[in-house]
Amino acid sequence: NAGVTQTPKFQVLKTGQSMTLQCAQDMNHEYMSWYRQDPGMGLRLIHYSVGAGITDQGEVPNGYNVSRSTTEDFPLRLLSAAPSQTSVYFCASSTHAGTGPAKQYFGAGTRLSVL
Amino acid sequence: KQEVTQIPAALSVPEGENLVLNCSFTDSAIYNLQWFRQDPGKGLTSLLLIQSSQREQTSGRLNASLDKSSGRSTLYIAASQPGDSATYLCAVEDGTASKLTFGTGTRLQVTL
To answer: Sign of dihedral through CA atoms A96, A97, A103, A109?
Structure first.
């Protein structure tokens, strides 16, 4: 059981470049989300999805796009990378809150540097 | 806006000691609270989840308590071991779409 898989593990971009961070889960979870982790600031929610075709913004959505065409995949797109987007990005998934409290499962993260 | 604070930011203890990590949150209208462990360069692993109606949860040497009215939670680690060295994160869920608000963590080092 792979859980939550993120690719790539590391990435270096130049300012203005675009890229997609991939996230896939094999647990048939309805809820998926993206967080970024910066020193001294904890993890902050970027975007989240409650199911295929449904996405919404979190606390820090600017500069990022998401889509959810399938239950399994939830890619995060950087439209025009900026140095302020240098961070570690984590994808998470969990079952529907309506079924009761559920633990969140996190991927191993993608370390992104924007020069 | 929910804010989560963890104290201390870093802690070093000798092996065998019992220790307590603290977490406080500003809005008591939470759905649940989770404690996570993060090893350097790794993702997060859920340790314990306490529902808003519960007072505590236990798993092995770990015990987490929740006092929703005062906005506090503690993670108690008994008989600490070097393998417990990691960063411990507290997060509260507001009950909508499993969105979490995280604290900045406590970095724990257990020395031999």
So the answer is: positive
Residue A19, Cβ density class (10 Å: 0-12 exposed, 13-18 middle, ≥19 buried): middle
Region for residue A8 given its phi and psi (left: phi exceeds 0; alpha: psi -120 to 50; beta: otherwise): beta
CA distance A64 to A85: 10
Alpha-carbon distance A19 to nearest alpha carbon in chain B (angstroms): 21
Half-sphere exposure of A24 (CA within 13 A, CB side): 7
Interchain contact, A50 vs B4, CB within 8 Å: no
Helix, strand, coil percentages in chain B from 3-state DSSP, rounded to 5: 5, 55, 40
The span from the CA of B73 to the CA of B51, in Å, is: 12
For B12-49, the pLDDT digits (tens) are 999 999 999 999 999 988 889 999 999 988 899 999 99
Interchain contact, A105 vs B42, CB within 8 Å: no
d(CA A49, CA B67): 30
Of all residues in chain A, the one with the smallest CA distance to B88 is A42
**Quick check: helix, strand or coil at residue B84?**
helix
Which of B6, B45, B100 is the mutation pick for testing A, counting most A CBs within 10 A? B100
pLDDT tens digits for range A58-84: 999 999 999 999 999 999 999 999 999
